[in-house]
Specification:
12 strands; alpha/beta; globular; single chain; Glutaconate Coenzyme A-transferase; 9-stranded mixed β-sheet; 3-stranded antiparallel β-sheet
């Protein structure tokens, strides 16, 4: 069996300038803090981040925004991080705002190998600009295209050594879906256990989707 365990320093070997990276979390809850710090410390820049939101200036993926490492954000809202809004208005960073349900479905389609999906959400609003519209049974829909990334950074509550993941309560959020839609998936668990210690029906993200596991921080 492949040894998927790496330390945080080796995780940084998978970062490079210009990457598209999906990061789990909802206002920082469920965002892998050590992986985000490693990404910041690595010095990589010109990143495209796909996430539910940009959290706050000092939590979640917020520090990546504040330190000017991001050229583009695709997210459902940015209101909790004023620096994101400032950079957007100043033209320092591109921000693509996507309705939350549309965003997660774009990611799911990317993971499932689908060519996109039809949704009425956004028809007749600024959301439809530049998008193809189709009519089915007299109803207008937008064609939304799938999203994929070079890398996904996920946080889990428990992982086993083959990368099977269990999330805890609301920290689950975007994490299982982004694990489907990236070329490389790195998980940061709170606790690492041996294979067999997680009941099969408790697994939320199967190890087949996870390439690397960052060893939990030693106490």
């Amino acid at each position: 069996m492949k040894n998927k365990q790496i330390d945080i320093q080796h995780a940084a070997e998978h970062f490079r300038d210009g990457m598209t990276i999906m990061v789990g979390g909802f206002m920082g809850v469920g965002t892998p803090p050590r992986l985000v710090k490693a990404l910041l410390d690595s010095g990589v820049k010109d990143l495209t981040l796909i996430a539910n939101d940009t959290a706050f200036v000092d939590t979640g993926i917020g520090p990546l925004i504040v330190n000017g490492r991001v050229k583009k954000v695709i997210a459902s809202h940015i209101g909790t991080n004023p620096e994101t809004g400032r950079q957007m208005i100043a033209g320092e960073m591109e921000v693509v705002l996507v309705p939350q349900g549309t965003l997660i479905e774009q990611i799911r389609c990317g993971g499932a190998g689908l060519g996109g999906f039809l949704t009425p959400t956004g028809v007749g609003t600024i959301v439809e600009e530049g998008k193809q519209k189709l009519v089915q049974n007299g109803v207008e829909y937008l064609l939304e295209l799938p999203l994929r990334a070079d890398l996904a950074l996920v946080q889990s509550h428990v992982a086993d050594k083959q990368g099977n993941l269990v999330y805890q309560l609301a920290t689950r959020n975007f994490n299982p879906i982004i694990a489907l839609a990236a070329d490389i998936v790195i998980a940061e668990p709170d606790t690492l256990v041996d294979v067999g210690e997680i009941a099969p029906d408790a697994v939320m993200t199967p190890g087949a989707l996870v390439d690397f596991i960052v060893s939990p921080k030693e106490s």
